[in-house]
Protein: Phage terminase small subunit
Amino acid sequence: MAGWSDHQRACFLTLLAETGNVSAAARGAGVSRSGAYAQRLADEDFAVAWTEAQAQAVDALELEARRRAVEGVEQPVLYAGKPVHGAGGEPVTIRHYSDRLLELLLKARRVDTGNSNDEVQDDDGVALDDDERVRRIMWLLEQARARQARRAAQGRVGAAVRAAEDGL
Structure:
């Protein structure tokens, strides 16, 4: 554990688990960011604890994302940029839910369990096999090359016209 006290090590790992941010954890522990990475390379136990701390930080983020998606977040109602107040003077709020967060959480969970649904489908929702995907990608590449060739030709014609006009 060369150069790090037990307190610095514990402080860094605690802050890393809380924030998920190496720079913030290093700052809070009174060590440099590069020193933290060097310590991780030099100390296998520290590297394992680092990985666990990062996993805890990700778990906390996942819980917060789930809370926002499922329980929602209260936000003030604004009118002309100012908070609206009820008859009793209390601020009026509205609860917003995040469908996008929920979608991302579900997608991440499916990837974790091997049930990802990332297959490529045609316009009718029919899954494309590998040969068809390759054929379509090749067609798209051909289209892109043709566009590039047209643009290059237009650029050459434009340059020739400008040169001719300059010569007049």
In short: Helices lie at 6-19, 22-29, 33-42, 44-70, 99-113, 130-167. The first helix runs from residue 6 to 19. The chain has three domains: 1-64, 72-118, 123-168. Strands lie at 73-76, 78-79, 82-83, 93-96.
